[in-house]
Request: fold
Amino acid sequence: MASEMKQPEVYWTKPNAHCPNSRLPVLVYRSVLPDDMTEESVSKAIGANQWFHGGTFKHYPSAHFHSNTHECYAAISGRTHCLYGVGPLDDLSDGVEFDMQAGDIAVHAAGVAHRNTESSEDYVYMGLYPKGAPKWNNNFCKADEGETRAKGEEASGVDVPDWDPVYGFNAVTGGGSGIGFAFVKQCHAKGARIIIGDLKLTSDAEQYVSKTKDSEVAFQKCDVTSWDDLHDLISASVEKFGAVPDVYAPIAGIYEPSWSNFWDDETSGSYKTIRINVDHPIKFTRLAMRALAGAEKQGVVCLVASTAGIRANYLASLYTASKHAIVGFAKAMGQADVDEGVKINAVLPGLVTSPLWLDREDNMIEWGKYAGRKQLQPDDIGELMVRMVESKEYEGGTCVLKTPYEERIQEEGHTKLQQKMKEYDPSPRPEAALDRIKDNLQSERGKNWT
Ligand SMILES: NC(=O)c1ccc[n+]([C@@H]2O[C@H](COP(=O)([O-])OP(=O)(O)OC[C@H]3O[C@@H](n4cnc5c(N)ncnc54)[C@H](O)[C@@H]3O)[C@@H](O)[C@H]2O)c1
Reply:
């Protein structure tokens, strides 16, 4: 992939009598394929984002759509002119047109009519399909309105894939150490490109980053208590990778240091523990939603709470309060998965061997009797977070607890929680008015990140 890429061009199609088209836009990415543009290198690059090669084709002049899968076309040779959104029986001027040439990619949703109107002799493109998609069906935009409507219903029921075919970008705070660094390495191994935001890197992380291309993993100094710094992490993704991240992991956190805890009571102003452990993940989630709405794409925010988010700890009451806040926030935000395509969930790790315990000046390990307890490794949590990002099993709002002894869903995601709410609180509960929220997000849609 090129290291400097632009945001995709966005084209909209509307349903008509013969083409269902889609509420999802057509995205055209310019010059994003590997330089050699072979089937092998393109399959590898796009496959890393969970879209897989289904066939290689030449000029295709018949308007058609697939009602059962989304599709990604990667032009690997020559050039073509495309007409989308209309079939042979429609007013062609209602369609959208654009050129493509070798190196470009077009992504269109199930139901969107598409064809080439004119191509160079050497035009060749690959078709790629999201993981788990069925073999595509062909519909030639000539059916009557009833059949087209039925095909449209089928198309709009096709799940939107979790991963953008071109970019799997992550922004990770606290990625310079412990759990964050483990998550970075595991995402990178899967082909994601990553911005690490942290105050510093551990020596292991520094070595890893220095051995990795800047176009794949980049470190940006960031103090998460500065909301400008958080904003700039997303800008760094746009500058380096050409798009806002798909995955946001606010992992940075602190555990009752002597300079910010409940018992020493030397804090004036506000508790830094709350600013780092609570304000930062909440603000980063809001920035993520704005960035994703602007880019018209779906995404994931994976929050890091703790077993302290459901348990009592008199020694570390401020930390306990901060992690309870994250569990509550994740539960509250589960609905964004259904309403906005942004999956927000949280992991609740038990004790993990990391610099959080090993690299500190006080006696917390002794006070808490942590040394003798069985501990997880950062990779155990990194692996779980990758699953929580990728798998539909963990819908928005899901909170997963993992200790050395068990892994379990502590809080079900939004859909299941809705059913359970009646058990928590059987009193009548009228539906909240969400128009203001919808309007806010609508006003952010389609805007470039600035
Ligand atoms: N280690 C555990 O036992 C454990 C258990 C449950 C939850 N957690 C949570 O996991 C997360 C990661 O912890 P870890 O164990 O990997 O610890 P860690 O100390 O190895 O990593 C925390 C990272 O956060 C960064 N950070 C701290 N303050 C920052 C700031 N103001 N701006 C930017 N970065 C900052 C640190 O530099 C560090 O790289 C934390 O949220 C922690 O509360 C840890």
Remarks:
- The first strand starts at residue 9 and ends at 11.
- The radius of gyration is 24 Å.
